[in-house]
Design goal:
Radius of gyration: 43 Å
Structural class: alpha+beta
Number of strands: 16
Helix content: 40-55%
Shape: rod-shaped
CATH topology of the largest domain: Heat Shock Protein 90
């Protein structure tokens, strides 16, 4: 009998039809084979009548629920149904009576020791020789572990999503074509776009030029060569908001491999607040420097000059035969005047840019002093258009030029240096080019990638790296970009680019004439770049 019941259950499950009623050897062999399959199945196979009485119970059912076949057969199927699932079982029996199966249904069942387990089951009606439904076959598989894994996975996903959604930094994921696949609420707040506007867009909509046009090329180059310039490295970049305003941000990019797909996740931190604070601190320090410089000029310098005049006056009162005393007084007066000159130079160094004269005048003076002091041919070129009206910005640009010139002389061993200041398409460009030995590639690459430099064990590289960091920092503080590259033919070119300041009127665009040169308007000659050679 067990073999016959098992065979009947399996017939329905596999869609086989083996009609009973005969006692041929063929039928017996078929039933034995089917019974062996049922008993060896890894899935629990249970046959039950239409009133829910268990008719057959294979070994897998015994392992799954803990009841032996002797303990289960003859009892109601509710033996393994939790109390809150009894209605579900009645509905299943109702479907079976109407000849309808239940396929791949996941539910909860009870084991002998009272544990609830998750099962996936299929229930099919069994028919007699006349085709009437008279029983049912149930096949069950334990999916508790799978359910537990799925729940754990969902829990992790929900927690990760919660972390992403509540993160203060913007988190954006793109595919290998640069298309945005996900963006958290912080990204919406940072850039001013809604999530629906971001998803499906190219990530370069969040970048100003020239990065907007160049990004796809960067991505293709990485996919082709595998050489990473940003991935795995944090660097400072410029972001573009929906309202077309730009802002500084720190970008960290990581790569994710999902099967054959490659995704890139960027974490972006707004640096606007930090840059404002840094600028305020530097401006406070610069103001204090200017105050000290002004005090030196107006106080100490004037006092020293007064003392020198007093010495000169005293020397004139000496008798004519006091030649030795007169010479001593003259030497003393010269020493005091020399000290006054040094104090004046110190005061001018503390406040190098006088807005009344302009940045161009300070840079022109720098070129002259370098030529005189170091024997290097240093020139200054100005297009007579580029203007900087903000004192703090002008001072930072001057300090960048001063540091670059110092690097060119000390580390680059340059014999010729050119400082240029020009307006180009809405930007102001300060460039310092030299013909020296150039910088190490590690340093120039580090500048481009925003890396910390000065880690070399060679002292001059470390010092030079610190100078580059200082220039880069000043450039960032005034909202500019900074590059340092080798020149073709030798040497280095350092470039700082900032947005041009709006000019209130045409009159304000007219710069003062260069020293010792007539202005273009006065001479009637067309304007041309001002180039001041070394003397």
């Amino acid at each position: 009998m067990p073999n016959r019941r098992a065979a009947r259950a399996l017939r329905v499950h596999r869609g086989k039809t083996v009609r009973g009623g005969g006692s041929s050897v063929g039928n017996e062999e078929e039933l034995a084979r089917l019974a062996a399959i049922v008993e060896s199945s890894d899935d629990a196979i249970i046959a039950k009548s239409l009133d829910g009485t268990i008719l057959d119970w294979n070994r897998a059912a015994q392992r799954l629920f803990g009841y032996s076949a002797a303990q289960a057969i003859g009892r109601k199927i509710t033996l393994i149904v939790p109390p809150d699932r009894l209605r579900e079982e009645r509905q299943i029996l109702g479907r079976l009576r109407r000849g309808k199966p239940v396929e791949h249904y996941e539910t909860i069942r009870l084991t002998k020791d009272g544990r609830e387990i998750a099962v996936s089951m299929s229930v099919a009606p069994l028919r007699d020789a006349a085709g009437r439904v008279n029983a049912a076959s149930t096949i069950m598989r334990d999916v508790t572990e799978r359910r537990r894994s799925e729940m754990a996975l969902r829990d992790r996903e929900e927690r990760l999503q919660a972390l992403v959604n509540t993160a203060a930094d913007a988190i954006i994921t793109i595919d290998e074509h640069g298309i945005i696949e996900s963006a958290n609420p912080a990204a919406e707040r940072l850039f001013g776009y809604s999530q629906s506007e971001l998803l499906g867009s190219n990530v370069n909509v969040l970048m100003p030029e020239p990065f907007h046009s160049e990004h796809e090329g960067y991505l293709r180059n990485y996919l082709r060569t595998g050489r990473a310039k940003i991935i795995g490295i944090g660097r400072e970049v410029t972001g573009l908001r929906k309202d077309r305003t730009t802002f500084p941000m720190n970008l960290s990019v990581s790569e994710i491999q999902l099967g054959t797909r490659r995704l890139f996740t960027g974490i972006l931190h707004d640096l606007s607040g930090r840059r404002r604070l840094e600028r305020q601190i530097l401006e406070a320090a610069a103001n204090e420097q200017r105050r000290i410089g002004q005090d030196l000029h107006d106080g100490l310098c004037q006092d020293l000059i007064g003392i020198a005049f007093a010495i000169d006056a005293a020397a004139r009162t000496l008798p004519a035969d006091a030649a030795q005393g007169s010479e001593s007084m003259s030497n003393l007066s010269a020493s005091v005047r020399s000290a006054a000159g040094q104090a004046r130079d110190l005061a001018r160094g503390l406040n190098p840019v006088d807005l009344k004269s302009g940045l161009w005048a300070a840079l022109d003076s720098l070129a002259t002093k370098v030529s005189q002091s170091f024997g290097v041919r240093c020139t200054f070129r100005w297009d007579r258009v580029a203007q900087v009206r903000e004192d703090a910005t002008a001072t930072h640009l001057y300090r960048i030029a001063q540091e670059a010139v110092g690097n060119a002389i000390k580390h680059g061993k340059a014999r010729a240096i050119e400082i240029s200041l020009a307006a180009r398409g809405g930007t102001l460009v300060l460039a310092i080019a030299d013909n020296g030995v150039g910088m190490d590639k590690a340093l120039t690459d580090g500048v481009q990638q925003g890396l910390t430099m000065g880690t070399s064990n060679r002292i001059h590289r470390a010092e030079m790296g610190m100078g580059l960091q200082t220039m880069q920092f000043r450039s960032r503080v005034i909202g500019g970009s900074f590059t340092a590259n080798k020149r073709k033919g030798g040497g280095t070119v350092v470039v700082c680019t900032i947005r041009s300041e709006p000019v209130p009127s045409a009159q304000s665009q007219k710069p003062p004439a260069a020293p010792n040169r007539p202005s273009p308007a006065a001479s009637g000659k067309p304007s041309r770049p001002n180039r001041r050679p070394s003397r």
